[in-house]
Amino acid sequence: MTAIRIPYSVARQLADHAASQQPNEACGLLAGRDEHILAAYPLKNIAPAPKTRFQIDPREQLQALIAIDEAQLNWIGAYHSHPRSAPIPSQSDIEACVDSGLLQLIVSIARRKPQLKLWRIKPDAIVPIDLIYETDDPPADEPALSPSQQAAMLIVAIAAVLLLLFISFTLLPPAPEIVPAP
Description:
Elements: E1 3-7, H1 8-20, E2 27-33, E3 36-43, H2 58-70, E4 74-82, H3 91-96, E5 103-108, E6 115-121, E7 126-134, H4 147-171
Parallel strand pairs: 1-7, 4-5
Antiparallel strand pairs: 2-3, 2-4, 5-6, 6-7
């Protein structure tokens, strides 16, 4: 497995959840199929020191696993945030990882722009995995135009061209008079 795909909307959900939990770490589960993250399930961090560690509430985890099963998805990993550091597994992240078959996604919100990095933590290695963002979902600051908005823009464009033509013709000097030769 060299790369995992994630829709922009799911990545945005992860970044928003991480930002909303500051200064604490956010956490949750990832669901999908094959090499594709399709959904995130935000969960409560019940760690005694939530600013530097995360621990998923077991009851919420069970509810999320049931929801993943009902959505006919597979549990493929977990995510958590690093509010003040890079998206690199910490020593406690490495020690807490009990299943090397699950992906570990870390969302860093230490900078203005969130950074997401995906890992597979094995007993003998920490392997970075490329995260490919799918652009089929438009970014929140660049929403797709609805058909009625597209039609309105077309009408405005046509009206603008007609107005320019009208103004151009009214500004032309009058046509010269052709006088027959004497």
